[in-house]
Fold:
Amino acid sequence: MNDLLRITSRDNVAVALRALSAGGTVEAEDIALTLKTDVPAGHKVALQDIDAGEPVIKYGFPIGAAKEAIPAGNHVHVHNLRTLLSGELEYTYQPTHPTLDPLPVRTFMGYPRKDGRVGIRNDLVILPTVGCVNDVARALERDAQRLAGGGVGKVYAFSHPYGCSQMGEDQENTRCVLANLATHPNVGGVLVLGLGCENSGVDILKQYMGDWDESRVRFLVCQQVEDEYEAGMALLEELADRMREEHRMPCPVSKLVVGLKCGGSDGFSGITANPVIGGFSDRLGAQGGTTILTEVPEMFGAETILMARAENEEVFEKTVSLINDFKRYFEEHHQTIYENPSPGNKAGGISTLEDKALGCTQKSGFGPVRDVLRYGEQVRTPGLNLLSAPGNDLVASTALAAAGAQLVLFSTGRGTPFACPVPTVKISSNTPLAQRKKNWIDFDAGRLLSESIPLPELARELENLVLAVASGKEVKAEERGFHDLAIFKTGVTL
Structure:
């Protein structure tokens, strides 16, 4: 394996593919230089002298400017690189009109639902309307595990601290997310568990659930029964008995909705894992399927690339609002817009938010942006969608599930064990992580470098894994029973 990777011919920095020591001679394409400093794996090396104030170019775009003169062969990182980003901006629509050549539509084994969607799981879920009944939900989850099997998938309780003492948009978000999860296609049966005095109770949620399948949903208000545990278990048994009659059937891959997320990123994420996910996204879109890209703050610095791919001017304007509204959210809370990347990102070689964003958006591939979704809104347009949600791993992944994603592809360079309300496929950016954390990682995209496997081949491999997961193969987090939910908290608490 080479020592350095220059991503594009325009770049004036290259990425160290392994830890490099000062005094060593290294090459990037036709450039040879002697290192003046140590450079950790995943970090950047100056390929030429960079003057103070001069843009530092990676992925073919500026990722910031030099704080000071940086001689060729020096480590380029947070100590000598600063962001060029600022607040809200005005944008002009300059479309590139990307297209995807159609591919033959493959199939997977799923659960067709009455509303036309398809589930890839047939889980039995306990969904509290308010945090006050979380312990009841957990007790039911524990004792209802005996109901799993024979058509019934996992038994999950999704506890959360919300559903009361909220107002305005904050309360609206909670109601939308809970209603969307109650009617999610992966849910074969759901017990909506209320307390009785909360302001987002059972009767309110029914109004947000739309045309829901009455055979799959049961409601219980704890204050209205003598023994909520006994009543809840009886309803779960009733749901499970009906679910046992359901079986997987062949379904077109055009019915798949896949969320795209990264977390614990490193300097290899934008070189291996995220481009491989982008290749998969294009392949799914070419078969009529849907992908959703979120974590808006990690689009800052790469947003014009997405805007140029907007299918039409309406989608462009929605993308502009997506970006500037999220910047305004930071400003209204008197917080720095560009307080990113995280300490772990920096340790892995990511220096600025532009650096992170240009790597993050690789997950979207090269296809057109077909629509933009508000937080809590469900996907309705096939192809690539953008979703308003923060960068926080669990909050963003929950938002993807609530938008209709049946599974989430999650790339990581440092690793994480978490799982959201739908199967969460962990994709490593580097092979050492995949080898060290076999209990976390489902797919090693680091082989793009460690084994020189071509990106299109890895994208097809990832597609095969996605279809296997959609057909019932458990991911590592599912094998360990991991699941969680986090709702975006945006307002005051009463």
In short: Residues 251-479 form one domain. Residues 109 and 250 are 5 Å apart (CA to CA). The first strand starts at residue 4 and ends at 5. The mean pLDDT is 95.
